[in-house]
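Design job #97: recover the sequence.
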């Protein structure tokens, strides 16, 4: 933790941006390594410090998905994610994945197709949406196992705690 004297424009914050990013990264790693209880505690704490922040909402939804609570993840992403961040590609991508995992295939494909074909430059969330929008016989979470996350998979871009 930084000493209070080392902080500049963040002196009124409990934690610096770097510390918040580190906690978010730890939360994502905890979830992807099947430590959902610890990840949930981290993201609930971050939600107190940065209520409704897109990365925090994604983290809470990811915890729900790791627990197999896909409908809860959809609710979190719609109510807390898209409501506050309607144009956030990471939130849109996670919503598409959560819908597919919740067996709401038509809705999930629609969200992913909209993201994949949105005008503008190619971005990592759009590229993942393009790949997932093509049915491959696996669910998104089977496709995006922790080993793929560790080697530059979805966590390397969709869960960008540096946005905190």
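Job complete. Output follows.
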């Amino acid at each position: 933790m930084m000493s209070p004297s080392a902080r500049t424009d963040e002196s009124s914050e409990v934690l610096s941006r770097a510390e918040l990013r580190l906690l978010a990264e730890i939360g994502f790693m905890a979830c992807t390594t099947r430590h959902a209880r610890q990840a949930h505690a981290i993201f609930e704490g971050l939600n107190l410090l940065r209520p409704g922040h897109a990365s925090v909402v994604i983290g809470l939804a990811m915890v729900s998905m790791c627990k197999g609570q896909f409908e809860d993840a959809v609710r979190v992403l719609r109510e807390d994610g898209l409501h506050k961040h309607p144009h956030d590609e990471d939130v849109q991508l996670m919503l598409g994945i959560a819908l597919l995992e919740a067996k709401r295939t038509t809705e999930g494909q629609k969200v992913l197709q909209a993201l994949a074909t949105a005008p503008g430059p190619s971005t990592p969330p759009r590229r993942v949406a393009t790949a997932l929008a093509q049915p491959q016989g696996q669910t998104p979470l089977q496709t995006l196992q922790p080993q793929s996350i560790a080697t530059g998979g979805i966590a390397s871009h969709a869960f960008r705690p540096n946005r905190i």
